Each structure stands twice: as structure tokens, then as C-alpha cells.
Amino acid sequence: MNLIAPAPDRTSAFLHPFSDLGSLQQDGPSVMTEGDGIYVRDESGKRYIEGNSGLWNAVLGFSDSRLADAASEQYRRLPAYHAFFGRVPETSARLARRLVDIAPVPMARVFFANSGSEANDTVVKMLWMLARAEGRPQRRKLLSRRGAYHGTTVMGTSLTGKDYVRAFGLPPEGVIFLTCPHYWREGRAGESEADFLDRLVAELEQTIVREGADTIAGMIAEPIMGAGGVIPPVAGYFAAIQPVLRRHHIPLVADEVISGFGRTGSLWGSQTYGVEPDLIIASKCITAGYFPMSAVMVSAEFDDRLTAASQEFGEFPHGFTTGAHPVGCAIALTVLDILLNRGVLDHLAGIIPAFQSRLRSFAGHPLIGEARGVGLMGALDVVADKPTKAPFPSDFEVGERIAKAAFRRGLIIRPLGNSVIFAPPFIMTRSEIDTMFDIVQATLDEVLEGLRA
Ligand code: PMP
Q: Pocket around ligand 1: residues whose beta carbon is below 6 Å from it?
């Protein structure tokens, strides 16, 4: 044993997800120790506004004791149980009923997993199992969109329309990416919004015909893209693509991991954008981030087919040890009660106009090409040249610079490519919204000055 080696740093054993591992070795991580309302505190005692609710999920902030109490009560009653072999924790069955009752379109049943990624994998396995049971084993291809984010399991990554998935030699064959429905960035010179939409619909139709409708298991879409940079679809998008999917009998999966439970201003993103999905995936806000949990909701028609398919294979051979965890479900029931019955969604409706108006006022800033968003989510897209929308070179890491400068000023926002994004907790007050955007203003001015220098 080497007795003179220096004691390893206390954080050096921690392997970080989605982080620059090289620069972390030099700079070290930010170590967070406490939360209070919309704020988190690091170990030096410095306080930050959490402008992204953590990872979109801590919508009730970081000190809601009602959720701690719900967890504690469930921990004392039935602290752990599963839902395999026809058993179910009573709390978990109640949550399934509650979710069916508030679903944006009629839904029959809910399957629980631990993360958004697992929920997406679950859906793909359901689709593939149905295809095999119904004598169409070739129905395996999946439609997604460039810019989409669907998670980090092998299928979650494969459905994600971002360049980094190449790091894993993904996606596999059979995942087909359609154009990102972002008019500002993807619309061609002289193309109207309506023409852009027509082009997307034609692309979908041609893709289905080219691949063969009977080889496609389903299409997955976020009602509004989140980690792609908060990208609301071009107006009329879902109303236009859904008839095409229906005509070809291709089920639509709404990935509501971010948009579920109020983020877009309606309870569901599907309501905000007119999505009529066959399956819905929810996570994140379902427990306000206080417990890992996700849900897959299936329509009655889908449920009947799944039941028939499970006869074929003897059972539904899929599930996670801690899916439907009773503590997560107790927290989720309390979150829903707080959102729907204790005025949080009403409060949210009251603050959204202030949030959107401050956000959109940055469209006039020399660095900002587009200020976009819906509900309590938004993005500022940074450009090097406003008329041509030319972005800064990627090695400039302009989003990163802005997020770092904001961090120094006590605000956590997230850089995503050329944009920075906002998704604060629903409990934010109007004056906290002003404080947040005042920091953004000072930050953008500081970064602009630095660039000019
Ligand atoms: N789908 C969407 C739309 C997401 O935003 C995310 C996470 N940001 C996921 C799936 C994956 O969820 P998780 O990280 O819980 O696996």
C-alpha cells in the first residue's frame, strides 16, 4: 500500500453522466447540498435559482415537505413491493386509476417503470410483441425525428435524433428520422410555414411508402421537443401528420416525459398541440423529481391486443423490479393532488404570460436569433449573425459560455447546442421570474461584451 499517496478527492470516484469528463478532472464538479423553494445551494453556501427545475422535473421546488411526508408514510406502511406475477401494491393501483382518469385521450391501463428511457423501451417491446403475436413479425421499424430526445437506454438512445448517438454505433437499422418540425431553423428560404408543413407531411407519406407501411411498428414524438432545444412543432403539425399515420395503421406514441403534468400550460402537451396518441409516456413531474418513476399509458384497443398477445406468449414477459414502487406511487398521488387540487396549476396559468413575455423580449438582443417556448418552458437561440441566422462555430461553445456566466451570477440554465433553455419550477413567483430574467439580461450583455472584446 502506498502510504504517501495524497488522499483522493472526495468527489473523484463519481462518474458523471452527460458531462465533459476531461475538464471535470481539472475543474471538479459543483457539489450541491441543499434545496429550498426554487433554489439549490452548493457546499460553499452559494444559492442558485434552478432555472431548469433540475432536469425539468422538480416542478414543486426543492423543499416540499408534503412529498417527504407521503414518502415517509408509505415507507412505514409498505416500503417496498413489486407488481410481478399478478400482485400490485394498493397505492400503485390507485395511481394507475388516477392517471387513467386524467389522461388527455381515453386510456385504459398504466404500466410503471423507473425512468423515461425505460418507459420508451417498454413501448418498443410492446409494439414488437404485438407485431409478432399478430403475425406481422416484419413490423419492427420505428419513426422518430431529428432533434428528438427519448432517453439513454439502448432503444432510448436509438430513437434520439442527435449526433452523439454515433458514439455508440447507434441507431441500429430500422430507426428512421424525419425532419425536425422547427420552421425557424428548418424552413427553406421563401418557404411559408404552411409550405414547410406540407413538405413534412409529404416526407412522412413518402417515407412510409418507401419503407412499406407493414414494416413500421410505430412513430414516437414529443408534443414539444425538449432536449432538442425546446422546439414547438410548426403550427398544425400533429393535425396534419396524424391522418397519414392512421391511414397506414401506424400507432403514435406521445413522449410526454417533459410535457406531461402542466409544463406546456395544459395538463398534457398532447392537449396543447392536439396530439391523439395510442400510447403515452410520462415521467419527471410525475413525482416532481422526488422519486425515479415513469408510466406508459395504453389505449383500450391497444390493451386488448396486448392481452391477446400475452396469451400467445404465456404472459407479458417484461417488467422492472422497482417499477410501480409504492413509495414513488404515494409521492405521485400527492404531486397530482398538489398540482390539481391545491392551486399549483392555477398559479402556473397566472405566471406563464409573464414568463413568456420576458422570454420573448430577448428576441431584440443582438445575440438572440429566436426566443421561443410555450407554458413554462423556453429557449433562447443564440446566433452569430441575425439576418442569416448563422450560429457561432461549435468550438465557440456559446451556449456553454452563457450558462457558465449565468451560473456565476447565481442562475442555473442549460446550454443545448446553440441555445440556452429555461424550465423553472411551477411554484416560481412573478418577482422570481423577473429576478431570473434580469440575471439573463446581465449575462447576455456580459457575454456579448466579451465577444466584442
Ligand atoms: N423522453 C424525453 C422527452 C426526455 O426529455 C427524457 C429525459 N430528459 C427521456 C425520455 C428519458 O428520461 P430518463 O432520463 O428518465 O430516462
A: 55, 115-117, 120, 149-152, 156, 222, 226-227, 255, 257-258, 283
